Amino acid sequence: MANPNRLQRTLGKLDGLPGPLRRAARNLALRRAVPFTGTAGLDFVALTPERSEIHIANRGKVQNHIGGVHAAAMGLLAETATGMVVGMNVRDDCLPLCKTMKVAFKKRATGALTAQAHLTDDQRHLLATQTKGEVIVAVTVTDEAGVQPIECEFVWAWIPKDQKPANGRNPS
């Protein structure tokens, strides 16, 4: 594949740290870059160019009225997992944008949740070589019981940074 992008290079600087310290440093760096992930307390368990794994604990600040992880927090978890794996692959001269997000609630979640997202080699090649495009990013969200309470589909687009939408809207 192509040379590491900025996110890969930044996280690569943490590789020399011992495991628990590396995870804490990764969480700190990514929560600073995307503050809302820190507000929700997302835990960046694993992050490679091929896959991401992100965890959210079922705790008070992200709970709904029945004591489970709130629907919005579930969506954030899945969106972050897909966005991070895209972010690990998009060229430095391009801006990744979530184009569509579909979340179907299937079952009541039990406890904490984990989202795992991945890209195929072909998708990674497109992100590394094309200045503009879009990919459907596969993501699975499971709870502590191994149940998949939501099914998601995320389409991520990327455009050259110099074409950043002035109105903040995603490209069509």
UniProtKB/TrEMBL annotation:
It comes from the Bacteria. InterPro entries: DUF4442, HotDog_dom_sf. This is DUF4442 domain-containing protein. It comes from Inhella crocodyli. The lineage of its organism: Bacteria, Pseudomonadati, Pseudomonadota, Betaproteobacteria, Burkholderiales.
